[in-house]
Amino acid sequence: MPHALARPTTRRATALAALVVAAVLTVTGCSTSTPTGEAAAPTSTTTDGVVVEHAHGSTTIPEKPERIVALSWMTPDIVAALGVNPVGMEKVWGAGDSGFQPWFEEFVTAEYGSTPEIIPYTEAGPNYEAIKALDPDLILGLYSGITDIEYERLSEIAPTVPYIEGPWNPSTWQDMTRTVGKAMWEDEKAEELIAETEGKIAALADEHPEFDGKTFVWGLTLNEGGTDLGVYLEYDPRVRITEALGFTSTSAMDGFLSTAEGDNWYTGVSLENLYDVPADLFVAWGSSAAEGTYTVENPIVSRWDPVAADSYVIYADEAKASAISAPTVLSLDYVLPTYVEDLAAALEGDPTVSGE
Question: Where would one find the signal peptide in this protein (predicted)?
Answer without folding.
Answer: 1-33
